[in-house]
Design brief:
single chain, about 400 residues, Growth Hormone, Chain: A
Amino acid sequence: MKSARSLNGAYGALNGVYWMLCCLVYSFSATFLLGRGYSNSELGLIVAAGYVLGLVLQPLAAAVADRTARAPLWVIAACTALVGLTVAALLFLPGKSIAVTAVFGLFLTLVILLQPLVNAFAYYIEGLGAAVPFGACRAIGSLAYGVLAAVLGWVIERTGTDAVLAAGLISAALMLGLMAWFAGAGAPDRTARAAEDSAETTGSVLRNGSFRALLIACVLLFFSHSFLSGYMLQIVRGVGGGSGDMGMLTGYVAVLELPTMFLFDRLLRRFSCGGMLRFAAVFFIAKNLLALTAGSMAGLYAGFFFQLISYALFIPASVRYAGALAGPGAANRAQAYVTVMTTLGSVCASGFGGVLIDRFGLKAALAVTTACAAAGALLMVLGVKSEKRIS
């Protein structure tokens, strides 16, 4: 049996390489597809289609992962292997074509599909006897995201957009190596998980009004959030920047997430997850509003500073909130429902974002995302209760 320190170190590394893949999806899909000759509208539709497939498959994959003790590990490993195959295929598919569209869409689907599984893998590790500091481990994901974004933006300007594919192959290979390491760590104890699963099922969680409010608010908040990350290149160009500036800004945003995520477990001792979710939701509005009004790169840096207390706080709080309601035995499924709704928000941002930009301009699109952030924050503040008040 591996030590708790090595298990947590490996889980932190798993978050790091997974969020490197997410960096390619969320921050460099536009760079890659525009570089291959796709329009903003085509970009949005391709990314939206990948998100939709991921959204549909997430609950199914999570249900499979909850069935046996080692299933989460093998499901993650299988999806990661497929990610590597899709990226390798794109290296041999030049230009713009139906094949590139289909394979890139599958790549997006697989990365999105993995998100709730990687988040809920913390419960797998706890079954091996290690108390997981989820916030700190997730912070490593943000650090890796930021470093890759900063470096890759610079590399793309000098070598071209196929650097995105090289980064994808490296990330997938590292992730498969980590899953092989976990395979040698033994099987988790599911006794406690089974007991909690019988006491609190995912179905009962879905009947809880507070949880439903969280799910609906996730759609609105992540519409606004995903627009900012998915169309970062257009936003940066709107104030006179380029790909290098986008990479640096993306890296800055990711690094801002680190303090909050590293300190999350300490915050959890003083504040409820529900309270932190309500607090974070308000600052999604501030981030979008300042992105709307920015006239320079300095203005964008100021606006995206609120990543520190919006997205960075929301992510670990939502994972623990879902786990608290569902119990570890249904953690994969509860987390999948949260991720489905955040993915739905991303789908809408991708599907409509490019169309909004092409037809009405960037400023009008940012005004829409700011309004969505405000609606999501209002619903979160009014509808989401703290865990101790949930009946």
